[in-house]
């Protein structure tokens, strides 16, 4: 960028609307930047302000504004795949003698993917302003963040799975559904059907698994979003109500046949994205519930089950939370409460 010219861009909310929700995202230098949130089919309008040094004239070959969506694989930083590119010329070739502001609008833009920043991949939307000059271009970029909604599924089946060793251990797990929104609550139960070994530790975790690239060059990264101890030889943080025989069982590190432990895991405190499947044939992101048991001899037993995370509109979310609240307050249940509000 030449000393004679300074370029500044401002991302403004649409006319007549309140300030937009902001998302903090990491830039290339690992510094945090604040990005306004936009949605699919929503217009993007703002202004470009070009400032020139006082009493200096700047000649240019045109000023262009672009709206770009691309996918960057961190192990192949030299190649960005653009899946969206729109362009507008806001100024014809000429001279700039003073600060000028140019309006632009990209109307009803289809944003088919949600923004994403992962371990090995970044899906990014940004506004790029270019001042064309004979010797060098002046370029400025401003990121925005896109959220994509989908309606709640018509069917949402419960999950049932088991862990067992013949004639020694048989434990079953049941979760109320298989598809959740980011503000949802995972409700489940653990059934001890046959226990002839001493269990000293049990934990539930949510794992995010990111797959990038395609064979033969493919990378898989797993990240534990959260991990909670259900049993660890003594009552754990988050237990609000348990009958006395269950408390004693947890303190002794044992579980008895016929015992049931309810679980309630709040998702609202975690950074969950929707589930992504084969986005532009570049990456996928999936979530799994992982239940781990460790016995006295440090033998490990685990079971994983994929769950689907989906984002719903705020109106649907408020309605869903209202229904869940009414159901929760209408029934008295003894629960192991686990989550952001209790831990």
Task: Supply database-style keywords.
six-stranded mixed sheet, Immunoglobulin-like, disordered C terminus, 53% strand, Vps26-related, 343 residues, elongated, Vacuolar protein sorting-associated protein 26, 23 strands, mainly beta, seven-stranded mixed sheet
Domains, number: 2
Rg value? 26 Å
- Give start-end ranges of low-pLDDT stretches: 1-17, 233-255, 325-343
CATH class of the largest domain: Mainly Beta
CATH architecture group name of the largest domain: Sandwich
**What is the residue-mean pLDDT, rounded to a whole number?**
78
Query: Rough shape?
Result: elongated
**Given the structure, what is the number of helices?**
2
Structural class: mainly beta
Order of helices and strands: EEEEEEEEEEEEEEEEEEHEEEEHE
In CATH terms, what is the fold-level topology of the largest domain? Answer: Immunoglobulin-like
Which band does the percent of strand residues land in? Answer: over 45%
Largest β sheet strand count, sense and barrel closure: 7 strands, mixed
> In whole angstroms, how far apart are the ends?
50 Å
Strand element count: 23
Query: Helix proportion of residues, in percent?
Result: under 10%
Oligomer: single chain
């Amino acid at each position: 960028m030449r000393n004679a010219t300074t370029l500044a861009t401002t991302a403004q909310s649409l006319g007549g609307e309140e300030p937009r929700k902001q998302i903090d995202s990491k830039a290339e230098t690992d510094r945090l930047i604040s990005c306004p949130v936009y949605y699919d089919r929503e217009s993007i309008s703002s202004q470009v302000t070009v400032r020139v040094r006082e009493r200096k004239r700047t000649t240019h070959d045109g000023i262009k504004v672009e709206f770009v969506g691309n996918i960057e694989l961190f192990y192949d930083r030299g190649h960005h795949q653009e899946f969206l590119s729109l362009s507008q010329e806001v100024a014809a070739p000429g001279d700039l003698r003073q600060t000028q502001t140019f309006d632009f609008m990209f109307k009803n833009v289809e944003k088919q993917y949600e923004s994403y920043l992962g371990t090995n991949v970044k899906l990014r939307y940004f506004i790029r302003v270019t001042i064309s000059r004979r010797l060098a271009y002046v370029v400025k970029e401003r990121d925005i963040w896109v959220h994509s909604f989908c309606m709640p599924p018509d069917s949402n089946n419960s999950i049932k799975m088991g862990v067992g060793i013949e004639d020694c251990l048989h434990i079953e797990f049941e979760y109320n559904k298989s598809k959740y929104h980011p503000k949802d609550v995972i409700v489940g139960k653990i059934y001890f059907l046959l226990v002839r070994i001493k269990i000293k530790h049990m934990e539930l975790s949510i794992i995010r698994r990111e797959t990038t690239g395609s064979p033969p060059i493919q990378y898989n990264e797993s990240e534990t979003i959260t991990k909670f101890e259900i049993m660890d030889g003594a009552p754990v943080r988050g237990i609000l109500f348990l009958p006395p025989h269950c408390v004693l069982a947890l303190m002794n590190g044992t579980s008895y046949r016929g015992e049931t432990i309810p679980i309630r895991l709040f998702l609202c405190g975690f950074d969950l994205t929707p589930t992504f499947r084969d986005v532009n044939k570049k990456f996928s992101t999936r979530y799994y519930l992982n239940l781990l048991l460790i016995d006295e001899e440090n033998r490990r037993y685990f079971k994983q089950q994929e769950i689907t995370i989906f984002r719903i509109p705020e109106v649907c979310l408020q309605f869903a939370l209202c229904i869940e609240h009414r159901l929760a307050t209408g029934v008295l249940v003894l629960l192991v409460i686990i989550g952001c509000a209790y831990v």
